[in-house]
Amino acid sequence: MKKLIVPLILSVAYISMAQQVQSPSKDITLDFALNAAGEPTYKVSYKGKSVVETSKMGISPKDGTSLSKGFSVIDTEQTSEDSTWKPVLGEESTIRDHHNKLTVHLQQKDSKKKMDIVFKVFDEGVAFRYEFPFEKNVEYFIVSEEHTEFDLTGDHKTFWIPGDYDSQEYNYNETKLSEVDNSRLDLNNGIALKTIESQYRVQSPLMMKSSDGLYINIFEAAVNNYPVMHLDLDKAAFKLTANLPPNAIGDKAYLRTPSVTPWRTIMVSDDARDIVASKMILNLNEPSKIEDTSWIKPMKYVGIWWEMHVGKSTWDYAGSQNAQNAGTGNMIPTGKHGATTENTKRYIDFAAKHGFDGVLVEGWNVGWEDWFGNWKEDVFDFTTPYPDFDIEEVSDYAKSKGVKMIMHHETSGSAANYERHLDRAMDVMRKYGYPAVKSGYVGRIIPRGEYHDGQTMVNHFNFVAQRMADNQLMVNSHESTRPTGYHRTYPNYIAAEAARGNEFNAWSDGNLPYHETVLPFTRLLGGPMDYTPGIFEIKMDIYDPSKTQQVHTTLAKQLALYVTMYSPLQMAADLPENYEKHLDAFQFIKDVPADWQTSNYLEAEPGDYLTVVRKDKNSENWYLGAITDENARTTEIKLDFLTSGKKYKATIYQDGKDADWKNNPKSYDIKTQTVTSKSKLKLNLAKGGGAAVSFELLD
Predict the structure, then answer these.
(1) 382-424 tens-digit pLDDT
(2) Contact at 8 Å (CB) between 656 and 667?
(3) What are the phi and psi torsion angles at 107 (to 5°)?
(4) Does 88 reside within a domain?
(5) Among 44, 42, 103, 45, which Cα is nearest to 78's?
(6) Is 360 helix (H, G, I), strand (E, B) or coil?
(7) Contact at 8 Å (CB) between 690 and 625?
(8) Which of 410, 497, 503, 537 is catalytic?
(9) Is 429 domain-assigned?
(10) What CA–CA distance (Å, rounded) separates 525 from 369?
(11) Percent of residues in the chain assigned helix, strand, coil, to nearest 5
(12) Is the CB of residue 501 less than 8 Å from the CB of residue 530?
């Protein structure tokens, strides 16, 4: 690791209330000041343009005191850091952390309480957090509100989802800030979700574009022992204020000194590519706490999952009418159970034949008859298989084929029950050689009535990652809080869902064609997503003629998502028999890696298009993914990222001339040609379409 820390300004006896710090490039300027009431304020500008006007900061403890006014500055420090570090898995093999830092030490004149505000200014944005030094008289305190404001400069175009404390599984809305209105939305959204109490509350990360061409993103990093930040919008003033989900009795966070809050982040650039390429969120998290990371590996997998979503099979063994007999051996099988020994062997054979690392099996354990909608605390024990799933036989068969099994733990929202059973569940994983688990949290959090995004559940998700790390197991969480870079600290937290995934296309109105062009600017900024791409049978009427649902992309776009949606855990989500019909297109899924040496974002516009090229970490081969929204698009790509003087075989998978996401989604063409770094590649993307390209070094 290379690291350079240089003090810029030494503390002096007289401390000015106003401080300024710039990014290393000097494009971004952060100004801090106390106003006449002793309230901390900040403002941000980019190349001389105001991004965030003067905005207030602070915390309100529950005891009625305030940590938002009456302060004086007792000391400041400025330093600069320029270092590099290597992620275990990632888009880059080496990440640079280059920023200037300002620490402001505050003390209230009357109460003598202290609070520090730490700013870090990177070339792509600003981050700040509150820090509470140890004080005996305030060793423990309860946060009732956070007063962080983001006073924006205008009515920006905004990509937003409603501020649901329990779910991020929404299509993104593209409107002006002034048009944000949850009351006009269908909040059921294909599944049973709660009503949003606040009409103008939205979730972060919030992606915006100003009328003068600035791309602005408000998010957070390193959320630990604190709730997730939502945002309340004052539409008249274009002002956002932090909103923290409460616990079951209304408190926001329980803290003790010394402690810190998560980082509040503001990314800004006049080039959208800088937002999606940024590693600022990762840089704001602590380094890995796992000393030996050799067991953390990228995985490509198939599994018994999509067939349940399309109605071919079921998660439950006997059906809800036999729920009372679950675990007794007296259940009557329905004949549609997916997680059988024989069906699992079929997936294992397919994985072995085509070089996949793992097989996921959902619905293997007792409890599925009596879970959805009942929200009982102890539905699952995570150790008892159904009668038709021989876990030992399956494990032995997978080992004989060189395939790893991926465990599945659906908690039905009962986090306390999962924690009680966690050690026994991990014992089963280790006994049968499962290196990773997919966890699920569908439904209300029971028994305490906590929100998914509250402090209790944030701590739960992080605790599970920590305990899994103690046992050298990887975790992929679904229906969890959205990641904020914590996978740097616990790189076994290999992926998460935490957004509207591909499964919505099977049984709801589906994901809008521009959905995948927004996610890299929002959800994916915090960490890799298990989006489950690779659906080849686009229209669901193949399973049931009465169905009108379909995936809102072309087949070629499903291939491109393996590059544009970064994750070291990638599923080929469709059924084996559907891939057997299109083995030529399936070849790209087989070839594309899940871990990278470097990544270049060639084209980007939120809600419209994205083109990414990545270099395999273990070879000289490159892979490109290009996607578009509901509009067809033609683009010409310079291949100057290839090594000069070398020749490559380019295999191009793109939409056919008559392709259309709605009317002809399975039309695709495959061609090969020899290219060099001086070549250009013209790509034609259909409506809702995409293109995927592999570049194989020839000499």
Answers:
(1) 999 999 999 999 999 999 999 999 999 999 999 999 999 999 9
(2) yes
(3) -145, 135
(4) yes
(5) 103
(6) strand
(7) yes
(8) 503
(9) no
(10) 37
(11) 20, 35, 45
(12) yes
Q: Which residues contact 511 (CB under 8 A, 6 or more apart)?
A: 171, 500, 502, 504, 505, 552
**How close are the terminal C-alpha atoms of the chain, in Å?**
33
Q: Token pair for residue 448?
A: 């305490």
Which residue segment(s) compose the domain that 166 sits in?
3-283
Phi/psi at 31 (5° precision)? -115, 130
Burial class (CB in 10 A: 0-12, 13-18, 19+), 213: exposed
Question: What CATH number is associated with residue 8?
Answer: 2.70.98.10
136, 99, 84, 85: which is closest to 114 by C-alpha?
A: 136
CA distance 221 to 451: 19
Residue 591: alpha-carbon gap to chain centroid = 24
- Inter-residue contact 150 to 127 (CB < 8 Å): no
377 carries an active-site annotation: no
Residue with tokens 């906590």: 450
Structural contact between residues 272 and 521, judged by C-beta atoms closer than 8 angstroms? yes
DSSP state of 565: S
Question: The tokens 């993914």 sit on which residue?
Answer: 625
444 CB-contact burial (10 Å; exposed 0-12 / middle 13-18 / buried 19+) = middle
Coil/strand/helix, residue 456? helix
Cα gap 107→286, rounded to integer Å = 27
Q: Residue 193 carries which side chain, given as an amino acid letter? A: L
| Average per-residue pLDDT for the chain | 94
Q: Is residue 135 in some structural domain?
A: yes
The total domain count for the chain is: 1
241 three-class SS:
strand
Pairing mode, if any, of strands 493-496 and 474-477? Answer: parallel
Sequence letter at residue 688: G
User: How does residue 13 score in pLDDT terms, banded at 50, 70 and 90?
Assistant: very low
Nearest 5°: CA angle at 675, between 670 and 677?
135
In the block, residue with structure tokens 């054979």: 349
- 270: burial class by Cβ within 10 Å (0-12, 13-18, 19+)? middle
Residue 28 belongs to some domain of the structure: yes
Q: Which of 201-210, 282-291, 324-333 has the lowest mean pLDDT?
A: 324-333
The dihedral of CA 315, 318, 321, 322: what is its sign? negative
Distance separating alpha carbons of residues 272 and 635, to the nearest angstrom: 17
- Alpha carbon separation from 558 to 62, 549, 625, 670, 691 (Å, rounded): 49, 16, 10, 14, 9
pTM of the model: 0.95
pLDDT at 181 over 70: yes
- Two structure tokens written together for 215: 């791309």
Q: What is the mean pLDDT of residues 266-295?
A: 98
Q: What is the full DSSP assignment across 33-49?
A: EE-TT--EEEEEEETTE
Q: Return the C-alpha torsion angle 278, 284, 290, 294, nearest 10.
A: 10
The tokens of 94 are what? 């080496």
